[in-house]
Amino acid sequence: MDLLTAVLLLPLDIEIDPNSNGLPGIGQLKKIVGASMTVGLVLAVLALIISAIVWALGANSSNPHLAGRGKLGVLVALGAAIVCGASVTLVNFFWNVGQQV
C-alpha cells in the first residue's frame, strides 16, 4: 500500500457524533440560547415597528431619504426575524449537508 492510498483511507475510519451529555451544563446552555433567540425575535419586532413608523413619517413628509431608511429598516428587521426564527433549521440543514460530504 502506497502513501497516497493510506492518506485517502485514513479519514474514513473516524466516527464522531454529537451527544447531549458530553459536557456539564448543556441543558443550561440550551436554555440560554433559547432565551437569546426570544430576545432576538422581540428586538426584530421592535425594529420592524420603529422602521415602519420612520417609513410612514418619511412618506407623509415628502422626505425620500427618511422613507428609504425606513424601507431598509423594515427589510433588515424582517431578515433578522427570519434568521432568528430559522436558525435551528438552518444549522440542522447544514449539519446534515456536512455529514454527506
What would the keywords be for this entry?
single chain; about 100 residues; mainly alpha; transmembrane helix
* Global structural class: mainly alpha
- State which percent range the strand residues make up: under 5%
Main beta-sheet annotation = none
Distance between the termini: 25 Å
Domain module count: 1
Determine Rg (CA atoms, Å): 23 Å
What's the number of extended β-strand segments?
Answer: 0
Range of helix content: over 70%
Give the rounded overall mean pLDDT: 87
Ranges with pLDDT <50 over ≥5 residues? none
Pfam family, one: DUF6112
InterPro entries: DUF6112 (IPR046094)
Protein name: Integral membrane protein
Keywords: Membrane, Transmembrane, Transmembrane helix
Can you tell me about this structure?
- There is one protein chain.
- The chain is an all-alpha fold and 101 residues long.
- 78% of the residues lie in helices and 0% in strands.
- The protein has one domain.
- It is built from three helices and no strands.
- It is elongated, with a radius of gyration of 23 Å.
